[in-house]
Amino acid sequence: MAPELGENDLELFRRWHRLSRPYIAWQFEQFAKFVGERVADVGCGLGNFVPHLRDRELYLGLEPDNRLAAEARGQFLDWGNVLIIGGREADVTSPECVALMRSHRVDTVLAVNVLEHIADDRHALQNMVATLDPGKHLCLLVPALPWAMGSLDRIALHHRRYSRAELLRLAVGLPAEVLCCHYLNLVGGLGWWLRSRVLRSRQYGGINFILMNALLPGVRLVERVVKPPLGLSLVMVLRKI
């Protein structure tokens, strides 16, 4: 994600929150059968997944950026099951965050487009697994295709994009088993490569959301039947052992 001209980070997140609802629903669909009753959403931004979890016992949103955390908190003041935490306690690399999730008896951790922003992604992954009891799930979505790394990734402060082999290797040695690891959004992956790597675009404009929402029903239907050989993102679900 990259701001439009004159747009600050908070305005970008508001735009994504407003225009990407169909896409967020598709992302959540990848994890729905693994999600329990007490969910921690790491790097929750403005709470994109809250509407999909309104019937759960607890939604614990963790957002290190205090501006985003404050705005998300304000949106869901009347939702009794929603708790938004900002600052260091929301930093998944910190022991405070691990203690917080343990104290809230989290049974599912969501981390969607988070690991690529963290220098020590292995440490972050270890911490997320450590918060869970055996049998509970960690649901990850990360940007895929290292060869598509380009201008938009640099603007979004991505340390990396992942291949499937790299993501699986990251989980080796953890007390968790891999339940699934697959690519998502073939069309989006090719589009990202074109805009970020070839055209070296510096912003992610409104037309991108229009195209994404227009193409999504067809892409979603096809990928529900046949998993693509590559895609914009990788989805991986781990179960604690």
The number of helical segments is 9
State the low-pLDDT regions, or none: none
Helix content: 25-40%
The structural class is alpha/beta
Fourth CATH level, the homologous superfamily: Vaccinia Virus protein VP39
Could you name the CATH topology? Rossmann fold
Query: How many structural domains does the protein architecture include?
Result: 1
Tell me the overall shape: globular
- Supply the CATH architecture: 3-Layer(aba) Sandwich
Instruction: Please outline the major beta sheet.
Output: 7 strands, mixed
The H/E string reads HHEEHEHEHEHHEHHE
Tell me the number of strands: 7
Average per-residue pLDDT, rounded, comes to 94
In CATH's first tier, which class applies? Alpha Beta
Give the amount of beta strand, in percent: 15-25%
Fold blueprint:
Blueprint: H1 9-19, H2 21-29, E1 38-42, E2 58-63, H3 66-75, E3 82-86, H4 95-103, E4 108-112, H5 121-130, E5 137-143, H6 151-155, H7 164-170, E6 176-184, H8 186-198, H9 206-225, E7 233-240
Parallel strand pairs: 1-2, 1-4, 2-3, 4-5
Antiparallel strand pairs: 5-7, 6-7
